[in-house]
């Protein structure tokens, strides 16, 4: 227990997110701003959803357990719908910002493309959503205690970490697909994204039965990942080319490549 | 310099660029209001060259130079570039401020979560005389409002006093005051902080070692902050003293009073900076008329500070169009109360000195820096620290407040880029922070997807 579980679970939950942020977002100020603003939008959606749930709980009969469970499911559904709504709102904002940046810049193109913004905004939703789900659990995992001593699953920390990782990936993929769908006005894609989000959220209600919740969620992650990859312009051909290019470029270099290097020593 | 030459070669009229650059460098001393327009045209040119020098986007710079060949086109090109520069620099400046604000908050939250001392109640400051230990809610609320009134009036009085001292040129008094308060922070509060940290981790340290460490830390801090030092060391010291000050506030301000004070000080900041007769605004204008930088000890600067200190006739003639700014007032510190409140303004500063044409020894990387007053750091950290100390939702609330403050800062910088004058940095961030704190704390954890 203690530090090992903390670092392990933190690594599982946020390792990919941290790597993605460090490699793709941290170097560009504009992307960092989009990341933080996305987190803000998600927080506002969570705030509104909490408000709705809170009011509904206050107005209801506290004693009725089934009703409370029903309200919880309802609260989760409202939360999902509001998150998607705010994702749409963020899309609108970023689109306007994109046009503004394009107008202002000298060559008429904005410094960041809408696809990059889609990716960063999806990542931001994923990170903040993952953080909000797991950070208190991680904090508790450092201290003394026994997991599941009252009969709950002893794998709680581990599964929460895996769930968080899935969530980060899912939000990233949903972001890419969603923005592309809004851009191309393919509303069935939007509907599918919202539906898959609802399904994922619903699956978590199966929770101590982790085989039934985590496995389908990971299947959804893989499917969404492939969909997002193809939406972003990738293809199997690209993947093969990328894998074989490394070989080709290596061989060319050893043969004494005479191509002009990209960065000229003068004037950059 | 290589890039500068290249660009001159590639355009039709290299002489025009250079001559216009030179002439743009010595505009007359502007007053606050109309100073915004004249030097900016010049700055756009200098910035263009500077941007080329720093190698950010050579293609756009080249385009800019070729398009600048005819005068009317140059005007609109300048304006467009000005805006683009603002936006491009804008994103970079936002990050230049996100990092220190985040670091300060991390230090404060880490200390609050680990060192028990700063969450224990041990008396109150004399600036918050009313106690909150009353049984009834109404009485408690009343006491916190009264505490706020006392605190804000002290701050107002101190600010006005400072403005008067500045107006009547009592520089020695002001410098003495600032030196005394930073001495207190760097030595006494650091000693207390170090003592508490050592107690928490049960590490023994003998007095000679302690004296050596504190002496070195404090002495280097005084030198870096008040005189010259490496920029990053100065920034680090400023972050540390802001964190220390915030910790003291978190410890000594009673619960409800702290929140009401946070709200009230944002309103005060708004008024002091934007109202025509506000003390901070008057301070800014006075400083501008005299072409002096103000109190570098109380402002966090993200750009090269030393260039301001260098005596350059051009710099004196130019007069920065946007002021750097801040104010602070500090009071005498008792061992239980630090008083150091600053109201802050955020501003963009022009890269004070003349550029590359006349002095080749200038840095190529002279970028426009952004300045943020230390009081902003302090109050942001107080908000996040209090959220970490007392929230029931714990880390969720802390993180929500953190994101809210960063977004507020981002929006403030956006407004700064739009309005181009000194702006208060507290209101938007503190408002968002308070809203998120109270809602995340009270609406319960909805940790469902």
From TrEMBL, chain A:
One of its GO terms (biological process) is protein processing. GO terms for cellular component: gamma-secretase complex. Pfam families: Aph-1. Signal peptide: none annotated. InterPro entries: Aph-1. It is a multi-pass membrane protein. Belongs to the APH-1 family. Component of the gamma-secretase complex. This is Gamma-secretase subunit APH-1. It comes from Nothoprocta perdicaria (Chilean tinamou).
UniProtKB/TrEMBL annotation, chain B:
Residues 57-70 have a biased composition (Low complexity). It is found in: Endoplasmic reticulum membrane; Golgi apparatus membrane. SMART domains: PSN (SM00730). InterPro entries: Pept_A22A_PS2 (IPR001493), Peptidase_A22A (IPR001108), Preselin/SPP (IPR006639), Presenilin_C (IPR042524). Residues 1-77 are annotated as: Disordered. GO terms for cellular component: endoplasmic reticulum membrane; gamma-secretase complex; Golgi membrane. It is a multi-pass membrane protein. The chain crosses the membrane at residues 94-112, 145-166, 173-195, 207-227, 234-250, 256-275, 395-416, 423-440. Keywords: Endoplasmic reticulum, Golgi apparatus, Hydrolase, Membrane, Notch signaling pathway, Protease, Transmembrane, Transmembrane helix. GO terms for molecular function: aspartic endopeptidase activity, intramembrane cleaving. Gene3D superfamilies: Presenilin. Its main location: endoplasmic reticulum. Belongs to the peptidase A22A family. PANTHER family: PRESENILIN, PRESENILIN-2. Homodimer. The PAL motif is required for normal active site conformation. Probable catalytic subunit of the gamma-secretase complex, an endoprotease complex that catalyzes the intramembrane cleavage of integral membrane proteins such as Notch receptors and APP (amyloid-beta precursor protein). Requires the other members of the gamma-secretase complex to have a protease activity. May play a role in intracellular signaling and gene expression or in linking chromatin to the nuclear membrane. May function in the cytoplasmic partitioning of proteins. Probable subunit of the gamma-secretase complex, an endoprotease complex that catalyzes the intramembrane cleavage of integral membrane proteins such as Notch receptors. This is Presenilin. The gene is PSEN2.
